[in-house]
Amino acid sequence: MLVTEEVAGALAQQRPVVALETTLVSHGFSEGRGLAAAVESERRVREAGATPATVGIVDGAIHVGLTGAELERFAEAGTSARKVGARDLAACLAQGALGATTVGGTLAVCRQLGIRFMGTGGIGGVHRGFAESMDISGDLLQIARTPAVVVASGPKSLLDVGATGELLETLAVPVLGWQTATLPRFYAAEGGPPVSAVVSDSPEVARICRAHWQFDGAGGLLLARPPIGGIDIDVLIDEAVSRVRSQNLAGQAVTPAVLSLVHELSGGRSVEVNRQLIEDNAALAAETAVAYAQLQNS
Ligand code: PSU
Ligand code: MN
């Protein structure tokens, strides 16, 4: 594993570190927008007083902390970069492929290094029609088994958000609503199921994390932050989901295909919301990482 000096130094001194993923860079956007979101996310993490640790697989090694040139490779590769969940890490490494880590893949790396905070846009979850397809994102199991907080604007709204909330409960993942009582739905702030606890500030999140991790074997938490300027595009999402389904796409290709169709159908409006919420979630992940470090040192 190649950990940059900046990240290794921060971890060694127990300073706040925030992991960021690369699937959203390669698969989540087109035309370099993923690169802009990644660069700005890193800037927001630093601005909040934490060290960004963007994770990706380059030339047969896991990189924790990416150079600008490496980030550009992920953006330029687009969907030709492998989408790497936890189960894909080993093959990607051994085969020397370029691998963009998902939330689940990134968390597997966080577990090795002891990184306790990560930011992303929306987590994967239980897909609509899961009873037939059995398509349930690997993100959920990785969140459950990694002692880390994932800051996201809830599950992506192309999923069955209610079923995702239920499965998070089954997996004993606390779902903390950032100044909200309901689980945000990625593009939309409203309309999701209730969260398991409402939180009002980052010191409170830090106290809950510390208490949670005192239980033997406790895993991850989801900190769900509603998007600012969220949009209700449920009709467009329904349309995109059914079009992708009729193309017989399955597995890893589903989420990127639906996202890109939603971006097209919304005339770019959803792209803007998506980019903004990714950056804001990175900043909140950093704020909570800082609060947690302060609590640990007090
Ligand atoms: N957030 C975004 N865009 C994305 C993702 C998150 O705003 O593309 C990615 C994450 O990497 C997440 C993945 O892990 O989508 C979920 O994919 P799937 O549903 O195939 O598990
Ligand atoms: Mn899937």
Task: Give an overview of the whole structure.
It is a single chain. The chain is an alpha/beta fold and 298 residues long. The protein has a single domain (2-297), classed as Indigoidine synthase fold. Helices cover 48% and strands 14% of the residues. The chain has 13 helices and eleven strands. Strands 1, 2, 3, 4, 5, 6, 7, 8, 9, 10 and 11 form an eleven-stranded mixed sheet that branches. α10 (202-213) crosses α13. The chain is globular, with a radius of gyration of 17 Å. The chain starts with a strand and ends with a helix. The model has no long low-confidence stretch (mean pLDDT 97). The structure holds pseudouridine-5'-monophosphate and manganese (II) ion. Residues 135, 137, 251 line the site of manganese (II) ion (MN).
What is the H level of CATH, i.e. the homologous superfamily?
Indigoidine synthase domain
Largest sheet: 11 strands, mixed
Poorly predicted regions are: none
Ligands and ions found: pseudouridine-5'-monophosphate, manganese (II) ion
DSSP, total strands: 11
Total number of helical segments? 13
Rounded to the nearest angstrom, the radius of gyration is 17 Å
How many domains? 1
CATH architecture tag = 3-Layer(aba) Sandwich
- Based on helices, strands and strand pairing, what is the structural class? alpha/beta
Helix fraction?
40-55%
List key phrases describing it:
alpha/beta, Indigoidine synthase fold, 13 helices, 48% helix, 14% strand, binds pseudouridine-5'-monophosphate, binds manganese (II) ion
Topology:
Elements: E1 2-3, H1 5-12, E2 17-20, H2 23-26, H3 33-47, E3 51-58, E4 61-64, H4 68-77, E5 82-84, H5 89-94, E6 99-101, H6 103-113, E7 117-119, H7 130-133, H8 138-145, E8 149-152, H9 161-170, E9 175-178, E10 197-199, H10 202-213, E11 221-224, H11 234-246, H12 254-265, H13 269-297
Parallel strand pairs: 1-4, 2-3, 2-7, 5-6, 7-8, 8-11, 9-10, 9-11
Antiparallel strand pairs: 3-4, 3-6
Helix pairs in contact: 3-4, 3-13, 6-8, 10-13, 11-12
The structure holds pseudouridine-5'-monophosphate and manganese (II) ion (MN).
Pseudouridine-5'-monophosphate binds at residues 21, 23-24, 27-28, 102-104, 120-122, 124, 137-139, 252, 255, 259, 274, 278.
